[in-house]
Amino acid sequence: MIHCLLVRITRNQQGHPVREEHLVSGEELSIGRGEECTIHLADPRANLHFASIKHAQDGTLSIDGEGTLLNIDGMYEHQLALEQGAHILLGPYELVVENLGGDHDLALSVELIHPLATDGDAAKRATPRSLAETGLSKRKLAYWLAGIIFLIFLVAPLATSLSPSARTSMAHSGVFPNKLWNPGLMSPGHSSFGSQCSKCHEAPFRPVRNEACLSCHAEVGQHLATPHLDKHVFKETRCTECHFDHQNSRPIAMQGANECIVCHSDIKAKHAKSDIPDIHDFGTDHPGFRLTLATGINASDIQRIAQTDTGKLVENSGLDFPHELHVGLVQVPGDMDNIKDMKCVACHQPDAAGKRFLPISMKQHCFACHQDQLEFNLAPEGRKLPHGSVAELSNTLRDYYASLAFKDKKSIEWVNEQLATATKSLTEGSGCDYCHAVEPAKESNNLLKITQPQITQNWFPAAKFPHAKHQAFKCADCHKVEQSAKSSDIAIPAIQSCKQCHTGNQPSGNRVVSNCISCHAFHMQKTKNP
Known about the structure:
Layout: E1 2-11, E2 17-26, E3 29-32, E4 39-40, E5 51-55, E6 61-64, E7 70-72, E8 75-77, E9 79-81, E10 87-90, E11 93-100, E12 106-112, H1 119-125, H2 138-162, H3 164-173, H4 210-214, H5 227-234, H6 258-264, H7 267-270, H8 282-285, E13 290-294, E14 302-306, E15 328-331, E16 339-342, H9 362-370, H10 390-408, H11 412-428, E17 438-440, E18 448-450, H12 475-478, H13 495-499, E19 502-503, E20 512-513, H14 516-519
Parallel strand pairs: 1-12, 3-4, 19-20
Antiparallel strand pairs: 1-2, 3-5, 5-6, 6-9, 7-8, 7-10, 10-11, 11-12, 13-14, 15-16, 17-18
Helix pairs in contact: 2-3, 10-11
């Protein structure tokens, strides 16, 4: 619950502020012209819903434009933590964070800084006088004005663009005549060099080259995996054909699916040998998903398999892990009285971005319940077998039995017999083979050969799926693991599961509109991490 001291500021005839205070509360404070908004902005120019103030995960207060850029202290942000003294412009209103904490979670002042003009104001500004009354000649005035316009709006900007020395001198003076040619405010991402037109426009009256874009955006990858095919399909397509700047606060990246559908609705016209089907809309003809499976320890050892190909859709992780024994009430191995209520989040912990999950590790996720599996008859020292390194495990056993042989004057044959017995116990009992695919090593200094575990971390490396936006659902709503008895089972939901909540480009019932860029990016990542 957020408790806010709301201060509405008006001005008297002398321009002095008059403050009126009252309290507002709510789980989150909505701001806008709508009657349902907690902080109501009555001016007809205000949006029905501008933004919301809510608690962040760390307990701090933040303001979220919910898709709209907010002007906060002159910077444009979608979301920002509130700080004392912050000035937020919402249409004709200015909000100032006066205090955080204290008797209230937040003290916020609201003032209409750009009131609507009245008829009286217009009358005061009107000064009807004829040109003849000024004693000026229409012809001379026209010549003078034409000359001034020519110098200011053509000669000065052109000189600044063509002459490096003129550009340098203008920059030192703080005057930038070429701003007069600016068709609109730059996108927020380019606002840092907004006055340096030559950063993108390398020559006057010439289109912006792709090389100018790539000089900054060097990490941007191509669209198709094969370079020569990418060049053939897109030929001389320029970045600016899809990315339009000078559109005020609108993002420069594509926000719709029209450009995608132009190609993908008739993919054969772009590439006759393509095996990609024609796609018009996610809700109507989008094909089933293809999963990316890791098949080796290297990032390049991957396969992409359609979910409909159930014969090949098997994860060879090298582990024996039944999900059904790790969900709900679970008895800890070796301890009949220790029952734990296992939740998915106990092992599958989201990363900081809320998109993917942190890697599973024995030490962090398994050791608390399975530490008994590392016990071995190394008494009286009470040591346990090390986990993670086969070489370290082999050396530990050799050192242990060698020390016993030295102490009790046993032969080397006795040591080898004990090592053979230990190896058999670890590979045929409830030792390493409890979780791993393991066998005795034949041609190695190690006693065992354990298959390197390979767990797929990202099933959709080329797609965007923020788990944080799906927290309202239970994991089991999409991932059916309660009856999974094999580690090779794959519990990634199919496209039919997504279509229960998501529709395509057009609204349908209460489902979420989802176009191409909701899940896909146009440019491939240059560095992949499957």
